[in-house]
Amino acid sequence: MAGPNEPQKEGPERPRKPGQTGPGRGGAPRGPQNFLSRGALGWIILGGLAIALLIMVKAQGNTAKDITWQEFMNYATHGDFEGHVVVKEDRITGTLKEGTPGVESTGASEKAKRLVSVKIIGASDFYLNKLSEAHVDFVSETNNSILYPLLFTWAPFIVVILLIYFFVFRTIRNAGGGPGMLGSFGRSRHKVANKEHSNVSLSDVAGIEEAKDEVGEIIEFLKNPKKFQRLGGRVPRGVLLIGEPGCGKTLLAKAVAGEADVPFFSISGSDFVEMFVGVGASRVRDLFRQAKESSPCIVFLDEIDAVGRKRGSGFTSGGHDEREQTLNAILVEMDGFDTNDQIIVMAATNRSDVLDPALTRPGRFDRQIHVPLPDVRGRMEILKVHSRRIKMSPNVNMEKLARGTPMFSGADLAAIINEAAIAATLSGKDWVEQDDLEEARDKVKWGRARKSHKVEEEERVATAYHEAGHAVLQKLLPHADPLHKVTIIPRGQAMGATISLPEKDRYGYAMRYLGATMRLLCGGRIAEQMKTGDVSSGAAMDIRMATTYARHMIIEWGMSEKVGFINLSEDKQRESLVTMKDYSDATARLIDEEIKRLIDEAYADAKRMIEENWDKVTAIAEALLKFETLSAEEVDRLMKGETLDKPTVGDLLKAEQQKSKAASKAAAAAGNHEADTGGAIPHPA
Q1: Is 467 part of the annotated catalytic residue set?
Q2: Which residues are CB-contacts of 522 (< 8 A; sequence separation ≥ 6)?
Q3: If exposure means fewest CB atoms within 10 Å of the residue's CB, which of 283, 335, 355, 516 is most exposed?
């Protein structure tokens, strides 16, 4: 190893390609000499435009007024011509003297106003004899060339055509990376990173252990390729990351960049497509050319569905499709690798169903890694990873928070930790507590609590009984999710919420669970109607969810005896502008009848249970009007007939007001004491 003052030894210089120049003075690459700079070319074009405009103005200004031969001879007889008259092959032109009567304006200059001409018809000897008889001096001129009139007529059009050629067609032709105004369009807009530039490692990825293991194998391939080639294996050419938004696909790619000791080229799928045809394919070729020069390396294509959609899906407008040309370039580049290239292409998408089959086949993307939503254990690990740098209270229960966040992605969990830290900071706390995490969870899922929102008392009562109906049925139905808490504080678009705490993650739905869920969804509307004698739009989301459950049970999950063990849902992979059904009108009528039957049965059972337990609904609703938020334990006590002994919302507001008044009085007293002492600082003795 060289010392601190000893220059590093450079390796052998790589042979240059034909036409490639070495670095210039100061290490900057020396490009091809440009004898005509862009600024000089612009001034030349502007000068040509000015000359063309002057020619057009002059040509328009020198236009003579056509008159008859009789009028021309009258001017000649009275001696009204100034100087001599010009006789050409087809026309006689003369300039009238100033003050000649009957002269009208025909041009921009004074002389142009007095310029008149007459057309020669037949032989010119007749006109020349008449001019001689009138004693008019004339000069004969012959048009030996047609270049001059053509120059006046076509010069402006020629200039415009040249401008279009230089500024549009040549720049489009040079878009492949050559010099020109738009030459950089054909160059790839990727970012290059390595282990030193990335601060993300595999230890920062949690909750997706299987995906981490497969990505770890890719890193091992790059670090020690000979280990796998010993038995004849080869490095995978492509790895496709598939998963819902926020599950950690891009984070896995960043971890690969942080773990592997190879260059990491990253680019988005939308960066390939531009307004000019052929630019996307040019960028693909440029990206893979640089990747081959830096082999071994990783190329990461984020959101590949932007250019990798199925060809011939019916959404193209005909002609040459830029997106399909870009996809063809990717297919050719991925299948054209040599065995020793050691280039791995990673891609991420959440729409794998729309990708072209030629792109996802083995040989291009050899591995498809599914990045799922985390389970309870995975969510707890993700919460621990994101809470490393957060000051957490010793009493925080991460397992409870993980149970209360089913179907949350890693991005959602990271947002919960961040929102909880912000809320604790604004509250002046020394650490993040469980209440902050619960509030952050509700904020991420439903929105910010609108505590200052003024709600009419009638609407407030209806909301309380609505949520009480949900809570009672959730306690009474054995197959429903356990209750966590119920509140009537407006949050987001909802006036209240009944929050459950699932005991486990569900990867499938049983018919008993679906029936219980549909019944508790109906409980809110029933309790609200029994109290107020009216119905409102507050049950819109409940109705939508119940209808969705019933429709899936009938057409997808085969939970109807009349419809049978048949899947009647439309093909999600079929792309069409017109919705098509694969069943008859009679089957559609049967599906509608079965959906209505399931919802009617759930509504009838929920109404019977609400009527039998109306006293419990009333107790919970009155407690909600008094305390606004109830936990599951408090709901249990109310259903057993017990009373709650805790301060109401009004008591909390009064205590807060008294606390603020006491603080203001203390501040005033401290100010008076300082005024009495004159602001003097007491002596340490």
Answers
A1: yes
A2: 542, 546, 599, 602, 603, 606, 607
A3: 335
